[in-house]
Structures are given as structure tokens and as C-alpha cells.
Amino acid sequence: MIEKKISKAVRHIILIRHGQYNTLGLTDEERILTETGRKQAELTGVRLKELNIPFTEMIKSTMSRAQETGSLISKSLPLIPVTNCDFIREGAPIPPEPPIGNWRSEMRDGARIEAGFRKYFHRADPSQEKDSYTLIVCHANVIRYFVCRALQFPAEAWLRISLNHGSITWITITPSGRVYLKVLGESGHFPPNLLTSHP
Fold first, then answer.
1. In this structure, what CATH number is given to the domain that contains residue 159?
2. Cα Rg for the chain, rounded, in angstroms?
3. How many C-beta neighbours within 10 Å does residue 137 have?
4. How far is CA 148 from CA 35, 93, 151, 155, 168, in A?
5. Which reaction does it catalyse (predicted)?
6. How many distinct structural domains can be found in the chain?
7. Who has the most CB within 10 Å: 13, 25, 51, 128?
8. pLDDT in tens, 41-81
9. How far apart are CA 127 and CA 129, in angstroms?
10. Strands laid side by side in the 82-85 sheet
11. Does pTM surpass 0.90?
């Protein structure tokens, strides 16, 4: 009976930061990808296709820039089922250490982002027979927080990590519960003129 409760499969979580976007937009609908951001998203899609990985699903933040990035990636990976998730929208997960002067309260975003972490970062269900590869298209703050939490680093260190637009971060969770960071912020698939990170 106990054997039925033991995980057998490996979960691979591949986190993609959205492409560069219009920071002058006043609403989410106006904060769409720039031309550079669209090129970044397309090249990330090409890179993911080149990896020849049997992706299981794509989960996209419901914010416009992540939706657009995911749609452009889907041009290279058209057969992957896509779902949307509000938990992984951009926000301020936890007060950073060292502190910054313009800190917004995490009360609005912290519990939601933590719920996103708990939803996606866990061992495979015992009923899962094959390894899974989940693409999550979201935001820098969310990815940085998830990396710290997954590796059991102090979560307050999230702001010390820098991620380029369209970059790839890969975390693996084994059946034993061991967590490995295989790639952090890979952006070698971009030419130098497409390397951007702020904001």
C-alpha cells in the first residue's frame, strides 16, 4: 500500500520571463511587448523547440506581456496545451534583503505568489508514470522568488538575482524530493542587441 504513494516521475519546471515590454503603459493592456520583446519571445520559442523536449503543458500569467510572450512561443510549440494562472502575475512577493527605499507592501501580492509556488513546486503525484516538462511564462519577481523558495535559500534574497527578458530558468524535482537548478536565466539564444533586463 505504501508503494502506491511513492513518486516515480521527475518534474521539470521551465520558467520563462516575458519579453521586453512598454513600461510607459498606464494599464496592463498598454504594457504590451515592444518590437524587441516580440523578437525575444520568438527566439525563446525557437530555442525551446531546438531542445526537443516533450513539453507537457504551458502555463501563462494572465498579464498582457506574459500572454503575448506565451502566444509567440506557441508558434514554435503549437501542440502544447495552454492554461492561464492568476497566481503567477507580477508582484512583490516578500520584503527584500537588503531593503530598498521604494518598497511596496507585499500584502497585496505575497500570499498569491506563495500560492503559485505551492501549486507548481512539488514532487510528482504517485499516479504520474512519465517525467513531465511544464513551461511557466511569467515575471522576474515571481521567478526569482520561486528559485529561492525551491532551493531553500532565504526568500528575502530574491531581488539579488537578475534575469534577462525571454530568459530560461529550469528547475528539476526528483521523486525523492531533491531539487536541482539546472539553468538560471539562460539567454545565450539571443544576439547581444536583444539582451535586455530592466525593468
1. 3.40.50.1240
2. 17
3. 32
4. 31, 11, 5, 5, 16
5. O-phospho-L-threonyl-[protein] + H2O = L-threonyl-[protein] + phosphate; O-phospho-L-seryl-[protein] + H2O = L-seryl-[protein] + phosphate
6. 1
7. 13
8. 999 999 999 999 999 999 999 999 999 999 999 999 999 99
9. 6
10. 82-85, 57-61, 132-138, 11-17, 168-173, 179-186
11. yes
In a domain, 17, yes or no: yes
Calculate ∠ Cα 21-29-17, nearest 5°. Answer: 35
Reading the block at residue 65, the C-alpha cell is 506581456
Residue at grid coordinates 497566481: 87
**Residue 87: its pLDDT value, please?**
98
Residue 181 identity (one-letter amino acid): L
**Cell numbers standing for residue 29:** 493592456
Q: With respect to residue 197, please indicate whether it lies within any of the assigned structural domains.
A: no
- Dist CA 42 CA 159 (whole Å): 27
pLDDT (tens digit per residue) in 92-134:
999 999 888 766 665 689 999 999 999 999 999 999 999 999 9
